[in-house]
Amino acid sequence: MDQPKDLIELTIPAKAQYVGVVRLAVSGIANRMGFSYDDIEDMKLAVAEACTNAVDHAYTDQLGKVDVIFRIYRDRLEIRIKDEGNSFDIAAVKQRSGPIENHLPLTAMRERGLGLHLMETLMDRVDIDGGKGVVVTLTKFMQRDEVDHDVDSPAETRSY
Amino acid sequence: MNVSIEEKPGTGQSTMLVVSGEVDAYTAPQLREKLMPLCEQNREVYLDLSRVDYMDSTGLGVLIGAYKSLRSQKGRLVLVGVSPRLSRLLKITGLTEIIEIEDGA
Fold first, then answer.
1. Whole-prediction pTM value?
2. Contact B26/A115, CB-based, under 8 Å?
3. Membrane-spanning regions, if any (chain B) (predicted)?
């Protein structure tokens, strides 16, 4: 497996008001890597969904923290969102995940639970590990033409 | 990273809420608090989202709650000024099939 070029770690208190700070970090890092506007917006949303889940479900006492680890690779950004709160039934949540279906009666229409569906649609890869706390790993690959604009990659050897 | 909400009452049992800023887990409760009573008092609620820069699933949850409340009394929820970003989000979550969206402007 290739090694990340750079690593950025951010720890926030498990409170909803700090999820916006993580969004700003996503935007700054992905922008620096050369991702497109749409990819950046997709990642901001997916990461915010994972952080919001961590804040909502993981802690009852509001004293916890959420670690966000950005791994910058040449061809992709991998973002790991980690909490140490209560685990949840991943299989059950996955089964409920999906878009809202309009044939269902009004009362059956859910107001929550769209987060995982959004993450899966907006990212290239979503990995969820339970155990002690929950670890969500989101991956977005750069488009070919975006990689070409990567300022940090070594310049191509050219013969004139 | 805040939201501001302004009501522009219409004629009869119709009203418009203009939402600006970011609707996320932190600000969505403010939107819900303003929106839900209006859904109980009006037949038609227009939600102008043209100045919303960001919305996530907690914001969508508020829209679904408002839609359910209005529909249960045969009322209408209409979204106005939906950006391409927001439109994509509504499509992914299946909400374009359910909630009325006004084109244009």
1. 0.87
2. no
3. none
